[in-house]
Amino acid sequence: MDKLEHSECTAMILPVKDALEVLGGKWKLQVIIALSFGPKRFREIAREVTGITDKMLSKELKNLELNQLVKRTVYDAFPPVVEYDLTTHGQSLHKLIGELKEWGDLHRKVVLGR
């Protein structure tokens, strides 16, 4: 990357800061990855995202809904069925997640020799 001017630096920092505020934390990207394989019920997500508590999963799903990355659908059934799925906006993260996976694989090789 060439040397950036101050205004270019500021223009890069703000959207990255916004993205990190929405996606930051231990669980959000893991939940998004689980949902990228198709709609899931709460228990299915909890099984795939190992280590997350029900309380934290509920909190993260609500936050992802507020940021229009996940949609919650309640089906009229007995007992009620609730399903979570990525929105089109949430699906736009697919490329970013792929890049993070590639970088993570490289990082493991560099740091851990694996």
UniProtKB/TrEMBL annotation:
Q: Which UniProt keywords apply?
A: DNA-binding, Transcription, Transcription regulation
GO MF annotations for this entry? Answer: DNA binding
Q: In this protein, which residues make up the domain named HTH hxlR-type?
A: 9-112
List where the protein spans the membrane: none
Q: Which InterPro entries match?
A: HTH_HxlR, WH-like_DNA-bd_sf, WH_DNA-bd_sf
The protein in question is named Transcriptional regulator, HxlR family
